[in-house]
Amino acid sequence: MSKITAIEFQKKNKDRVNLYVDDEYLLSLYAELIYKYNLEKGQEVDKDKLVEILKVDEYEKAKNKALQSITRTEKSEKKMREKLLKDFDEDIVEEVIEFLKKYSLVDDERFADRIVANDVNFKKVGKNKIKQNLYSKGIGREYIESAISEIDRDKELENAIYLAKKKISKIKSTDERTIKNKLYQHLAYKGFDYDTINSAIRRVLEGED
């Protein structure tokens, strides 16, 4: 059986320690695990226990990476999984994902609703653009469809009219067909559907709003 011959705190990261077994460096791990497993110099340890400790350490590293990532920007379950799989084994990643979901640190439904609210109220874009944004964030199809279905049609038309008015003020041509084409292209790019675009253009050109 092997023996722990030294436990040294790392100079650049005081949260981690280097573990030496039989006078040779074996691995580094979080300092809290030293106390959790009651490890100390001179203690004999078997291979199975070291493997167990190493797995727990990997889980803690993956969890901390996920938490640090979330503090910077919210992520979908898919994007978080992809990020973690670059550095950790699948079984470790799935454990972390379950932890994040348990404490609502990753919540695709909430994330989708938040994106929709921001895109509708501030970016003022249409459903198609919002759907593209949700897909790009890796949000699941069921949450996308649910969030999109909650968008108020009147609010979407109001946004299309707002953007059409902004655009028309920059169009130099006085030809009605040219104006309509430019407005249509602009609103289509902003993600509005055919009916919403036509209604918005008609109201703006006829001065109804």
Automatic annotation (TrEMBL):
The keyword Cytoplasm applies. It holds the Pfam family RecX_HTH2. Gene3D superfamilies: Winged helix-like DNA-binding domain superfamily/Winged helix DNA-binding domain. GO terms for cellular component: cytoplasm. Residues 154-201 form the RecX third three-helical domain. InterPro entries: RecX_HTH_1st (IPR053926), RecX_HTH_2nd (IPR053924), RecX_HTH_3rd (IPR053925), Regulatory_RecX (IPR003783), WH-like_DNA-bd_sf (IPR036388). Keywords: Cytoplasm. Residues 107-147 form the RecX second three-helical domain. Residues 62-100 form the RecX first three-helical domain. It is found in: Cytoplasm. GO terms for biological process: regulation of DNA repair. Belongs to the RecX family. Modulates RecA activity. PANTHER family: REGULATORY PROTEIN RECX FAMILY PROTEIN (PTHR33602). This is Regulatory protein RecX. It comes from Peptostreptococcus russellii.
